[in-house]
């Protein structure tokens, strides 16, 4: 099964994806993690990506799609992928559909974690205090949230039109959100 965890930054996508990896042996394809790894490597790509992320901007579709495509064989071998932070734009969603179609696969389910902006700002302040991640500072987060609302939220009708979108209240406890995701997966299976 291939699924997308959809929601704005700090909605809990990474937390839920890690749980699904542990419980279902799926492969998490987190573009954020892949991009941070590129930065940590000190590679030319990592240096380019670093400046973009520190400004809170979105990395180009071409770079992100290349990162995802390189990881698809691993996900297929495991029986499925959890796309976390991808796709972010309609162009990425269409490219993902084409990539998967060419491999005889598809997105099976899109789970949207619904949260409100004020709660996200509180979450990110706490996360920044703990991690010090450059892309979690309040100014960068505001840019990321604006970018999500402008560029990524319009994907909802795309997946709703395909009959793949399920909404989950992301404001509950980690356990409550996990139970709602598990119910959506069970209903799809």
From TrEMBL:
The written remark on domains in the entry is:
Consists of three domains, a large central CORE domain and two small peripheral domains, NMPbind and LID, which undergo movements during catalysis. The LID domain closes over the site of phosphoryl transfer upon ATP binding. Assembling and dissambling the active center during each catalytic cycle provides an effective means to prevent ATP hydrolysis.
Q: Name one GO molecular function term.
A: ATP binding
Provide the residue positions that the database annotates as binding AMP.
Answer: 31, 36, 57-59, 85-88, 92, 133, 144
**The keyword Ion transport belongs to this UniProt entry's keyword annotation:** no
**Where is this protein chiefly located?**
cytoplasm
Q: Which residues bind ATP?
A: 10-15, 127, 172
Q: Tell me the route in metabolism or biology where this protein functions.
A: Purine metabolism; AMP biosynthesis via salvage pathway; AMP from ADP: step 1/1
Keywords assigned: ATP-binding, Cytoplasm, Kinase, Nucleotide biosynthesis, Nucleotide-binding, Transferase
Q: Which range is the signal sequence, renumbered to this chain?
A: none
Q: Name one GO cellular component term.
A: cytoplasm
Question: Which PROSITE patterns does the record cross-reference, listed alphabetically?
Answer: ADENYLATE_KINASE
Question: What gene is it encoded by?
Answer: adk
- The enzyme's main class, written as a single word, is transferase
Is-annotated flag, keyword Lyase?
A: no
Could you tell me where this protein is found in the cell? Answer: Cytoplasm
Q: What GO terms describe the biological role, i.e. biological process, of this protein?
A: AMP salvage
Query: Which Pfam families does the protein's record reference?
Result: ADK
**InterPro entries according to UniProt:** Adenylat/UMP-CMP_kin, Adenylat_kinase_CS, P-loop_NTPase
Q: What is its EC number?
A: 2.7.4.3
Q: How does it assemble?
A: Monomer.
Q: What does this protein do?
A: Catalyzes the reversible transfer of the terminal phosphate group between ATP and AMP. Plays an important role in cellular energy homeostasis and in adenine nucleotide metabolism.
The record's family statement is: Belongs to the adenylate kinase family.
The reaction(s) annotated as catalysed by this protein in its Swiss-Prot or TrEMBL entry are: AMP + ATP = 2 ADP
Residue numbers spanned by region NMP = 30-59
Q: What is this protein called?
A: Adenylate kinase
